[in-house]
Design brief:
By secondary structure, this protein is an alpha+beta fold. It folds into two domains: 41 residues, Arc Repressor Mutant, subunit A, CATH 1.10.10; 72 residues, Alpha-Beta Plaits. Helices cover 39% and strands 21% of the residues. It contains five helices and four strands. Strand 2 and strand 3 form a beta hairpin. The longest helix has 13 residues. The two termini are 30 Å apart.
Length: 140
């Protein structure tokens, strides 16, 4: 089912991406609409699956990195992604097209912890290779 977003929906989503805890009153004021309209839109966007969850971004870890994973062609990437997503320190796992099958966003206290995560991924059967990129700066 296609989800049609209005210009107001797009603006509301942009504000919520910046601060998912912003009050409906403040959102309404910024968008020059009523609090009831914002409340109804957020409810509809949640019910239709456009908003999947509200989450917290942390800055507690010293390092953040992207780990690209290439697996054998006969591996079910969804299962691999779900396994890794459950690990401590894993923020999100994306199934991707291109040269990498997965891109994993991780947080670690130091390079030893990051390296341990990479080594654990490499131990998974049918993982062919990994490539790690440190995130130098996050812009919201």
């Amino acid at each position: 089912m296609a989800k049609t977003l209005t210009e107001l929906d797009r603006k509301l989503l942009a504000l919520l991406r910046r601060n998912g805890r912003e009050s409906f009153v403040n959102l309404a004021e910024t968008l020059a609409t009523s609090e009831a309209t914002v409340r109804a839109r957020v409810k509809r966007l949640g019910e239709t699956g456009v908003i999947r969850q509200f989450t917290v971004r942390t800055t507690g870890a010293n390092l953040k990195a992207l780990i690209e994973v290439v697996s054998d062609t006969d591996v079910e990437t969804s299962t691999l992604a779900e396994t890794i997503a459950a690990w401590a320190g894993v923020e999100v796992v994306y199934e991707t097209s291109g040269s990498a099958d997965l891109v994993i966003v991780v947080e670690a206290d130091d390079t030893d912890e990051l390296n341990a995560m990479v080594e654990e991924i490499r131990k998974i059967p049918n993982v062919r290779s990994t490539q790690t990129r440190l995130i130098l700066k996050e812009v919201f």
